[in-house]
User: What shape does this take?
Amino acid sequence: MLVISYELSESDVELYNAAREMLLAAHHGENHRVAAAMRGASGVIYLGLHIGSKRINVCAESSALANARMAQEVSIQAVVAVSMDEHGEPQVTNPCGLCRELLRNYGAETSVLVDAAGEVGRVALEGLLPYPWMRASETEWTTLPPDLGARDLSDRLR
Assistant: This one.
């Protein structure tokens, strides 16, 4: 269940403004399309910028996370990414699936500013990725195979 809050704090707006300023300063239609800002547990804001080429792209969230980890930040409290709209104005953009998975590895308690159909809200990262990718050996449970019960499989194939 996705629980979203539309009551943003000054801290949320500050985070957005940091990402916005980064994108306005560095935007390039192909090479730098997204900027991200994340606040560590220390309160410090770390910035990231999409790095792209014809063959590979590195997301802004991952570069911000790398900056935070290099600074020895122990956890991430909040994150926002922005991309340009058709008028050249930065808008909140939702993290891609790879970033959701990457960020989840560094703390499911992180909050994310999201575009909820045109309105900015805040959600827990865990709400964006409730069933993360994990190896079977990494879980705390044993997953039973799907059970068709007494039904004959041939009935399902008709």
In short: The chain has a mean pLDDT of 87. The two ends are 34 Å apart (CA to CA).
